[in-house]
Amino acid sequence: MSQKVRTRFAPSPTGFMHVGNLRTALFEYLIAKSNGGDFILRIEDTDRERYVEGAEDVIYRTLAQVGFRHDEGPDIGGPYGPYVQSQRKPIYKKYAEQLVREGKAYNCFCTKERLDALHAARGENGGGYDRHCRNLPKEEVERLLAAGTPHVIRQKMPLEGSTTFDDVVYGPITIENRELEDQILLKSDGFPTYNFANVVDDHLMRITHVVRGCEYLTSTPKYKLLYEAFGWQVPVYIRLPLIMGRNPDGSVSKLSKRHGSTGFADLVAEGYLPEVIVNYIALLGWTPKDNREIFTLDELVRNFSIDGIGKSPAVFDYDKLLWLNGEYLRAMPQEEFIRRAMPYFRRVFPEGDRPWDVLAGVLQPRISRFTEIPKLLAFFRELPEYPAEDFVNRKSRTNLENSAQMLRAALPVLQRQEEWTAGALRACLTGLAKELGVKNGTLLWPVRIAAAGQKVTPGGAFEILAVLGKDEALRRLNLGLRKLTDKEPEK
Q1: Cα dist. 151→86, 186, 310, 363 in Å?
Q2: Confidence check: pLDDT of 217 > 50
Q3: Residue 257: active-site member
Q4: Is 186:93 a contact under the CB 8 Å cutoff?
Q5: Could you tell me if 256 and 262 are in contact, meaning their C-beta atoms sit under 8 angstroms apart?
Q6: CA-CA distance, 280 to 325, in Å (whole number)?
Q7: What is the pTM of this model?
Q8: Cis omega before residue 82 (within 30°)?
Q9: Hey, what's the torsion of the CAs at 328, 334, 335, 337, to 10 degrees?
Q10: Buried b / exposed e across 96-109, counting CB within 10 Å, b at 16+?
Q11: Model confidence pLDDT, tens digit, residues 34-86
Q12: Among 305, 327, 399, 460, which residue's Cβ finds the most Cβ atoms within 10 Å?
């Protein structure tokens, strides 16, 4: 195709951003940008019954978070606006009436009651609309229009033969025309149907490539017949494979909330990075030529090719997403890790400053999501209740008696310690262990238990003492010693 590649993301403002919608946006973005083309945002809000207040903000916010910068759209304008379908009603009316004038569409005056009765009489598999108004006499049509009778505009679908269209991924698809009912183009309220608005807008906005899920594969003949009715060029259609979720019994079914979070905002709230979600969904239905798994958005643009899109359904693997998120966290520069972890640090330390680099140093190799941080660091905010028996550790060769001895030795040394950093505390305590003639662990185990109040901690005694600060650290060690003293037998 010699003309400039133009794709469009055309979400309906009906609620949250599903990962399936986001994957469609991503592939449209990649197709455009990998070919030096334009990525267009269009808001399809003609389904007024499903419209959700504030949903447009969700669309803009999501695109900003994932970095899909559109070249034209409602917020920035462009040469083919308006980019909100509800603002384009006169355009749809003009083109629908053009088809009526050309004998390719007609006014249908059938009431809802008649259509419901027809459907009930024919049953679930009894076919669609019976084309009752398709050949009404011209005089009757004019009389009904003059009387203001509510009506829709339907396309005259071919009654014989078949319609074939080519999809880049799925190849040629043929539908028998007798299976297609005369589709509604313009509803009685003046709003277009989804299919009609899409075709008109895609043509007028010069869209060259249309990306949609394969579940809409059978609706494509309707698009092609509309393009042919107008004499317009049909864009390239690219259907994406289904996204599935794994059920407890090992089977798979179409991804839904029973499998886990399916909305972008929900996944972000659970601690998955926006760039990780983008990286992961790129691999749902697309295989890179070099079998890489980790990509920035710019790298995806450079490596993407349509021929890598497959037909087989892709399974959304939450374990794989979690692994990928952890890989991103570990590869992150420490300064960026601290910046992005700060909202979670602040849940534990709402005020003041802490040695954030120390916290990052112990957390970055260990966590897979930032949301793990508050629970892992909860002992800093409040010393947990713990039994004296926690001081006993076979590997560190500690018992209740020598743990008390270690704390008695450590407290005055730490009290005199002026530089309260992890490095200085390491030198101080390892020096004390050497002076006492014990292994480091024999001293550090009781210090860490007293400071943290739990056996498993992110980081060791030096880091924990540094983050607690001198006053709180000494307070906790004194409490630990008191706990051990209470356990000592009376002499």
Answers
A1: 19, 9, 43, 65
A2: yes
A3: yes
A4: yes
A5: yes
A6: 9
A7: 0.90
A8: yes
A9: 40
A10: beebbeeebbbbbb
A11: 999 999 999 999 877 788 888 999 999 999 999 999 999 999 999 999 999 99
A12: 460
pLDDT confidence of 130, banded at 50, 70, 90?
very high
Q: Which amino acid is at 37?
A: G
Cα dihedral 52→56→59→60 (10° resolution): -160
Looking up tokens 């005199």, which residue turns up? 416
CA gap 208, 142 in Å, rounded: 39
Q: Which amino acid is at 52?
A: V
Which residue of the set 4, 94, 254, 257 is catalytic? 257
Pairing, β 209-213 against β 236-240:
parallel
Q: What is the pLDDT of residue 1?
A: 46
- Rounded CA-CA distance 27/275 in Å is 15
Scanning the structure block, which residue is given the tokens 């055309």?
Answer: 10
Q: Which residues of 404-428 are buried (b: 16+ CB within 10 A; e: fewer)?
A: bbbbebbbeebeebeebebeebbeb
Cα separation, 92 vs 191, in Å, equals: 8
3-state secondary structure the chain: CCCCCEEEECCCCCCCCEHHHHHHHHHHHHHHHHCCCEEEECECCCCHHHCCCCHHHHHHHHHHHHCCCCCEECCCECCCCCCEHHHCHHHHHHHHHHHHHCCCEEEECCCHHHHHHHHHHHCCCCCCCCCCCCCCCHHHHHHHHHCCCCCEEEECCCCCCEEEEEECCCEEEEEEHHHCCCCEEECCCCCECHHHHHHHHHHHCCCCEEEEEHHHHHHHHHHHHHHHHHCCCCCEEEEECCEEEECCCCCEEECCHHHCCCEHHHHHHCCCCHHHHHHHHHCCCECCCCCCCCCCHHHHHHHCCHHHECCCCEEECHHHHHHHHHHHHHHCCHHHHHHHHHHHHHHHCCCCCCCHHHHHHHHCCCCCCHHHHHHHCHHHHCCCCCCHHHHCECCCCECHHHHHHHHHHHHHHHHHCCCCCHHHHHHHHHHHHHHHCCCHHHHHHHHHHHHHCCCCCCCCHHHHHHHHCHHHHHHHHHHHHHHHHHHCCCC
- In the block, residue with structure tokens 């990649």: 30
**pLDDT tens across 422-451, in order?**
999 999 999 999 999 999 999 999 999 999
